[in-house]
Amino acid sequence: MIGKEEICFNCFILVCLFFVVPMRYNDPKRIEVHGAFKNGSMLFLRPEVDSAYKIATERISKLQESNGASYGMTKFSLMPQDEFKNKYLRFRMSDFEGSQALVRQRREAHSFNVSGVPIKFDWREKGLVTSVKTQFQCGACWAFSTVGVLETMYAKKTGKLVDLSSQQVLDCAVGNFGCFGGDTCSALAWMSSNTTRIVPEEEYPLTFKMQRCKAHTKSDINIRVAKNFTCSNFVGSEEEIIKGVATHGPLAVAVDGLSWQDYLGGIIRYNCESHLNHAAEIVGYDLSGPIPYYIVKNSWGADFGIEGYLHIEIGKNLCGLAMRVSALDVLIL
Ligand SMILES: *[C@@H]1O[C@H](CO)[C@@H](O)[C@H](O)[C@H]1NC(C)=O
Ligand SMILES: *[C@@H]1O[C@H](CO)[C@@H](O)[C@H](O)[C@H]1NC(C)=O
Ligand SMILES: *[C@@H]1O[C@H](CO)[C@@H](O)[C@H](O)[C@H]1NC(C)=O
Ligand SMILES: *[C@@H]1O[C@H](CO)[C@@H](O)[C@H](O)[C@H]1NC(C)=O
């Protein structure tokens, strides 16, 4: 028999499951650990969560950066690293229409020269960036990052900020693997070569599942990616990335997101490798402080990182972010 009190007790636990003592950060809304709850100043863990918690705290203690980013318990931290990688890191290189060959190598050593660009720049401040999306366990980072850039380029041209259909790209972009992964360059190759037009998300909603590509004929908004999109390696010449952001638009990038599992905020300066396994979008940068950084939009919800974003130090190809950088223009049909 379940009495009223017992039901309420259960409710209390459920609510508390999403609250835990922050390890370094003082913003409790960013700290969500499934299976852990706080009572007074004590942290309680369910037994099955206990070993995952130990593994996470060991991993996190190795990540801590003096004078860099903060790491701690995020909504992903109690997941074994392999499982996290499988579910959330699904960037996969493909070679649709020779998209590998599209990656131009720009390896010449450049001094860091960004004269002529603003000291900071953020496309969000212009009101041209859509909300942070949540990919859940569908590995469609590659679709979210390219469609995110497309949304801003469309808004820049028309003044209309519209969520465009990542699901359509997920379902239809030949040469990719839907929720099992994809490649930003190959997605753009499809978006620029296929006659299919990208429609608003409203007309082709997200299901986070792979579906048969739905042919769309009528829509008020018909968009295609222009043929001259770029796909560049700017390792050693990251000033090109800054110039691209300031003068052209946001950039879709492939990254290594493994250490992002435990990212809470601050500027990532170390502990980020470059085994490309995820995709994101650079929407701005800030060169005004002692540590210059990129502002990176992710697709793991607004409750991840800095309201869905990360800050990553400029100039070190951190997280492999300079290896596969795409700019694009939009054609309105
Ligand atoms: C929280 O702590 C108080 C005092 O120690 C105790 O009475 C109460 O049962 C605890 N609640 C939970 C949900 O453990
Ligand atoms: C930086 O670039 C500008 C033009 O883009 C050039 O005039 C200037 O000499 C460069 N500065 C350095 C230190 O290379
Ligand atoms: C365009 O994409 C659709 C959906 O994936 C596919 O069925 C079609 O064959 C493609 N057309 C061309 C010309 O590549
Ligand atoms: C594509 O071409 C247009 C027109 O020439 C140009 O304005 C734009 O910057 C180019 N886009 C890219 C990504 O190079």
Automatic annotation (TrEMBL):
Residues 117-329 form the Peptidase C1A papain C-terminal domain. This is Peptidase C1A papain C-terminal domain-containing protein. Belongs to the peptidase C1 family. It comes from Artemia franciscana (Brine shrimp). The chain crosses the membrane at residues 7-25. The keyword Transmembrane applies. Pfam families: Peptidase_C1 (PF00112). GO terms for biological process: proteolysis. It comes from the Eukaryota. GO terms for molecular function: cysteine-type peptidase activity. Keywords: Hydrolase, Membrane, Protease, Thiol protease, Transmembrane, Transmembrane helix. SUPFAM superfamilies: Cysteine proteinases.
